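Lab channel / #folding
Pinned by the channel admin:
"Please post every new chain as: sequence first, then the structure tokens as a reply. Keep commentary short and put observations after the output so the thread stays searchable."

First post following the new format, from NK:
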Amino acid sequence: MHHAADSTLITRAPQLSTSLQQQFGCASSMCPYGLDQQAVYHQASFTRMANKTMGDLLANGYRRNGNHMYTMHCPDCALCVSIRLDPLTFAPNRNQRRIWRKNKDIVVQQAPLAMSHRSLGLLDKFLRIRFNNARNQAQSYYSHFFITTISTCFELRYWAGSDLIGIAIVDAAPNCWLNAVYFYFDPDQSRRSPGTLNILNLVSFCRKHRIPHLYLGYWIDGLSEMAYKKAFKPHELLLDGTWRLCT
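Reply from TO:
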């Protein structure tokens, strides 16, 4: 797999302590991204975690799922590539500026993580229509995936008048990092390009709170649902233990 990157602009991921690494083990299941193969998770469960520790794990490609931190150690696949932005150097392209202007009526509300009737209904609709998957239930997403004790987690709710059109679940540590955990939206509002709008707003949030790293999760080459992430430039991809700048 080839990535267009300036190999001279690299940042090595921080070294994890031996004691931290020893807490992790491997578990396997079917690929969560639809590939017909087994996926191997390198994961561990925690009850509390310092901001620096979580920041070091994020910088090494780990993601949060509830109180678990994990990364992919699949033996025959390396498609899951962590992607992050530097909010200060990010420059929106013409289409992203157009989307920002198009959504100038949107009001963003920061709020505690909550399983309200309205948010659960919106997430159920999103999962049913966007992924045609009735097995995944909104309540289990909140109770097993979103809710956590290891980070400061909250919601950013996007309102168009009285209509709730999307919710971003994020972890954040002031002056350190922001982790985009999940974003879901009303499929009837797709014309607004809500995924792009959300990332643009997260960049704005990071700038306001002086957060230097915005982690967007995984980017997978060839997966159309994730293609929009790579349109945010410059961005960094974690390849072979180093963050490489892609312009």
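NK: Helices lie at 18-21, 51-59, 94-102, 117-130, 138-146, 194-208.
TO: also worth noting, The CA atoms of residues 105 and 160 lie 6 Å apart.
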